[in-house]
Each structure stands twice: as C-alpha cells, then as structure tokens.
Amino acid sequence: NAGVTQTPKFQVLKTGQSMTLQCAQDMNHEYMSWYRQDPGMGLRLIHYSVGAGITDQGEVPNGYNVSRSTTEDFPLRLLSAAPSQTSVYFCAASEKGAGNTEAFFGQGTRLTVV
Amino acid sequence: AQSVTQLDSQVPVFEEAPVELRCNYSSSVSVYLFWYVQYPNQGLQLLLKYLSGSTLVKGINGFEAEFNKSQTSFHLRKPSVHISDTAEYFCAVSVTSYDKVIFGPGTSLSVIP
C-alpha cells in the first residue's frame, strides 16, 4: 500500500529559486498537512487542508503556498527559496480531522537551500 | 493555545532496561494526546493515542502511556527496551477532532547493547 508519497526525496536549491514539493495520498483522506522538521524544534505545521478546495495556515506559513484541487494531491510551493527554509518536510494525511485520528506521514523531503 | 514540552532531548538506556519518556502539555480545555515514533530516515508513525476513557493507553511494540490530567502529563513507558526501539519519539496534542495537532520537540532514545 502506497499511503502518502512525497517527491522528491532530496533537493538542493539556490537562494531565490522556486520549486514545488509533491504530496499524494491514495487513502481518500480529507485532511492533509505539511510540516517542517528542524533539530530541537520537532514538527511545525506549515499549511493544512480539511478537504479539496480548502486550505489554511499553520504555525509557520510565511514563504510557502499550497493548493488542494483534488482529494489526492496537496503540493507545497516555495516561491523564492531562502536558506532558512533548509529543513526536512513531511506531508501527512488523516481521515477527517487530524485531532483525534491517526496521521499517516510520507517519507519526507530533505531540502537544502544554498 | 496548546503547547507540548518534552524535557529530555536525549535518553540513553541499556538494552532490556525500562524507559520512561516524559511529556507535559498546556491547555485550558480537554485534549487529545498522541505519541509518534520516527525511525531513522523515515516518516512518523503512531505509537498510541488517548482520546477519552481509561487513562492507561497501550500501543504498539509494547509501549504504554498514562494520561494524568492533574499533572497535565502523558508519559510514555516500556518495561524492557530493544535495540530496535532506537528512534525519535514525539508527543503531540490537539483540542478537537478538527484542530491542528501540535508536536513537541522530540526525545531521541538510544538503546545501548
């Protein structure tokens, strides 16, 4: 079972470049979210979506955009990459709300901005 | 707003010894609580969760956690650890089923042979 698939697994960007991190899920879950993981800070929520066409900001949304045109896909866009966005990014999906159900995570994308 | 504290950033423990990973949260309302585990170079997976009912929650791989409302704690325990338990452990909290899940900073458990 695929679950949540993230691509790419690794990426190096130059400051100012743009890119899209892809996230796809095959579980038909309504709720999807993006986190960044930094040493000593755990996971911080960037953006989330409670269903197709609906997105909202998390704790650290600046510098990132998202859209949710289908239930399956939830891409994360960096419009102008900065070194502060060097991090490991995780996408997660959960049935209905994330608050009381298990979140299924992708394998992560390790992004380095130079 | 909710927050989660994991006081121990690193916990080394010998194989077959017991371990407790501490988690405290702050919230003015009732909460849902979770423990997730992250093995090296992988995503997170759910160990256990507390939604309501019995305060002692059993999870996968022999782990359990106890919800203590008066102390606002949700400590994770295992009576005998294995090398394969070496991983990062995250405590998380939410307020409602549709609320955001807030993660703690994580505790790195290292099991020593």
Describe the structure.
The complex is a heterodimer of chains A (114) and B (113). Helices cover 0% and strands 51% of the residues of chain A. By secondary structure, chain A is mainly beta. Chain A has strands at 4-7, 10-13, 19-25, 31-38, 42-51, 54-57, 64-66, 76-78, 87-94, 104-105, 109-113. Chain B is an all-beta fold and 113 residues long. Chain B is globular. Chain B is built from no helices and 12 strands. In chain B, a hairpin with a 5-residue loop joins strand 5 and strand 6. In chain B, strands 2, 5, 6, 10, 11 and 12 form a 6-stranded mixed beta sheet that branches. Chain B has a 4-stranded antiparallel beta sheet with strand order 3-9-8-7, with no helix packed on it. In chain B, strands 1-4 form a two-stranded antiparallel ribbon. The A-B interface holds A 4, 31, 33, 35, 40-45, 48, 50, 58-59, 90, 92, 96-103, 105-108 and B 4, 6, 9, 32, 36, 41-46, 49, 51, 90, 94-106.
Question: Quick summary of this structure?
Answer:
The complex is a heterodimer of chains A (114) and B (113). With 114 residues, chain A is an all-beta fold.
Structural class of chain A: mainly beta
Series of secondary-structure elements of chain A, N-terminal to C-terminal: EEEEEEEEEEE
For the sheet with most strands of chain A, the description reads:
7 strands, mixed
Count every helix of chain B, treating DSSP H or I runs of 4 or more residues as helices: 0
* Uncertain stretches of chain A: none
Largest protein interface? A-B, 28 and 27 residues
Radius of gyration of chain A: 13 Å
* N-to-C series of helices and strands of chain B: EEEEEEEEEEEE
Q: State the end-to-end distance of chain A.
A: 35 Å
Mean of residue pLDDT of chain B?
92
What form of chain A results from the Cα inertia axes?
Answer: globular
Quaternary status: heterodimer
Helicity level of chain B = under 10%
Query: What percentage of residues of chain A falls in helices of 4 or more residues?
Result: under 10%
The amount of beta strand of chain B, in percent, is: over 45%
Q: How many E-type strands of chain B? A: 12
Q: What's the number of helices of chain A?
A: 0
CA-atom Rg of chain B in angstroms: 13 Å
